[in-house]
Amino acid sequence: MSLLPPLDALRANLQAQMLDPVVLESPEDLHPLKPSAVLILLYPWEGAAHVVLTLRPGYLRRHAGQVSLPGGRFETSDGTLLTTALRET
User: Fold this and answer.
1) Neighbour-count burial of 55, counting CB atoms closer than 10 A to its CB (0-12 exposed, 13-18 middle, 19+ buried)
2) Which residue in 8, 48, 52, 85 has the most C-beta neighbors within 10 A?
């Protein structure tokens, strides 16, 4: 038995809260914003679902010391935002 709810249950929960999940394949879908992508990774541990977060180093010029989802800025070589999220993760 899975500790995590099925994807359909997660999607229904998001939609019930008016937070439709969106997967964008092209950075042009975000124009004029700076294209970037994150990955929300859920995993079971000790009977509960957990999410992966990153702690940004204190020496960074921007967003130092912040906790964030793994992800970052789209690079042309990525091709898709999905590739960006995977590369950054």
Assistant:
1) exposed
2) 85
Compute the distance between CA of residue 60 and CA of residue 38 in angstroms, rounded to an integer.
Answer: 19
User: Once rounded to an integer, what is the mean pLDDT over residues 68-86?
Assistant: 89
Distances (CA, A) of 48 to 5, 26, 52, 70: 11, 34, 13, 20
C-alpha–C-alpha distance, residues 71 and 87, integer Å: 8
Closest CA to 39 of 6, 85, 75: 85
Query: Would the pTM of this model clear 0.90, i.e. be above it?
Result: no
Q: Which residues of 68-88 are buried (b: 16+ CB within 10 A; e: fewer)?
A: ebbbbebeeebeebeebbeeb
Please compute, for residue 17, the number of CA atoms within 13 A of its CA located in the half-sphere on the CB side. 7
